Amino acid sequence: MTDPRGNDTGAPALVIETEIAIIGGGLSGTLAAVTLARAGHDVTLIDRHAVYPPDFRVEKIGGEQVDILRRLGLLDALKAGATPFDEIVNARRGRILDRTRSRHYGFLYQDLVATMRAQLPGTVRFVVGRVEDLRTGVDRQTVSILDQGTVSARLVILATGMGDVLRRSLGIERRFIHQRQSLTFGFNIKPAGDAAFRYPALTYYGEKVSDGIDYLSLFPTAAGMRANLFTFRDHRDPWVKEFRDSPKEVLAATLPGLSKVLGEFEIVDRVQNWLMDIAVSENCRQAGVVVIGDAYQTSCPAAGTGVSRLLTDVERLCTVHIPRWMKTSGMPAAKIAAFYDDANKQAVDRRALQLAEYRRSLTVATDLRWRAHRLMLLSRRRLVDSIDRNAPALGATLRLLRSRAA
Ligand SMILES: Cc1cc2nc3c(=O)[nH]c(=O)nc-3n(C[C@H](O)[C@H](O)[C@H](O)COP(=O)(O)OP(=O)(O)OC[C@H]3O[C@@H](n4cnc5c(N)ncnc54)[C@H](O)[C@@H]3O)c2cc1C
Predict the structure, then answer these.
(1) Confidence band for 344, pLDDT divided at 50, 70 and 90
(2) Nearest atom within ligand 1 for CA of residue 145
(3) Could you tell me the distance, in angstroms and rounded to a whole number, from the CA of residue 378 to the centre of ligand 1?
(4) pLDDT for 185-219, tens place per residue?
(5) How many helices, marked H, and strands, marked E, lie in the chain?
(6) In the structure, what pLDDT confidence band is assigned to residue 4 with cuts at 50, 70 and 90?
(7) First CA to last CA across the chain, in angstroms?
(8) What are the backbone dihedrals phi and psi of residue 324, each rounded to the nearest 5 degrees, phi first?
(9) Which of 23, 42, 359, 367 is in Cβ range 3.0-4.6 Å of 19 for a Cys bridge?
(10) Are 224 and 188 in contact (CB under 8 A)?
(11) Residue 133: other Cβ atoms inside 10 A
């Protein structure tokens, strides 16, 4: 083995023989490792970081995402590491539109990954290191870890997020569906003065199409009230720099009705931002390796589908496909293809791409069709809310009929 300066340290090189090597211990790689190890597979998880560093990623989940975590036996872990809330007040132009009543959880991404890594059974080998090379084939896969040695596996799961290097080394290229599709900001917010915020969670929609703001989502986390601002603005727009320099003033000027609903606020620390490309990996049907999570397809943060995608990948791959693949020898491309052909996976991936473009058009499209659609959506929400408040039994029946028709 060599030290960071390239000198031989005399330490023996690492050589691990394993059934399944997972490269990338973010949310998707960690959940795959937990699920497979619990099912009795021999798993080695490799990540550059012993502890996932603070990074801006998903910070709130709910709905089907919680359902899949429950099915994977990880709901209790989520509950232990995240802040639950049951009602979101939705507002626009200084007025409350309606309320969303369902269980959600808020967290910081690094805390969620740490909570899930804490669920790794003791049988999982966790190797901290940067994978620099990957050789794949039908029978054995060889993973080279910089300055450490090699891991030899029957199957490799590539869960390296948006990093390109390893995918490229296998000839897996990203096909861009929409470059610079959206720009998302994250920051912490607190009430000005001593009073608490009026609502535990608030979604505040953009006031004008020209602002390019889809919505501001405010929700509780262990670190306090978190804000995610989902926009479809050009990253070179002077507004972006102005917002980063003076977030409170620019937010108050762009969403003038916000403080009427929320109360006066302060932004606590620096604003993080993320410019998202929507891309899908191509040429993945290869022997010995399977690609999941963001490494397979990226998602629009405003659509909130990234976690649904990666959870579906983990559930289908680890509970349906891998158990079948392991029953017979070899990992030919034809076996691996069954995962990419999985109807559930394909439906969730397709829906994520559709929702990404839908949210963008709903926010910024100016043609008559979208203007009419926006108006119709807002009117329908106000009508449903008014029925809910004045005739709750009728509201519940209408919701039931709608969910049956969907
Ligand atoms: C700003 C933002 C907001 C978002 N909001 C939402 C939301 O509201 N709802 C939602 O559902 N989704 C959201 N998402 C999407 C969601 O965060 C991602 O889909 C999810 O985090 C992807 O997890 P992953 O495990 O695939 O990748 P990552 O978490 O990026 O993990 C990749 C891992 O691979 C490791 N790695 C990479 N290369 C190597 C190597 N060569 N050797 C060793 N290790 C390596 C990295 O260290 C890392 O730990 C958002 C994304 C962003 C960017």
Answers:
(1) very high
(2) 42
(3) 33
(4) 999 999 998 788 999 999 999 999 999 999 999 99
(5) 14, 16
(6) very low
(7) 58
(8) -70, -45
(9) 42
(10) yes
(11) 13
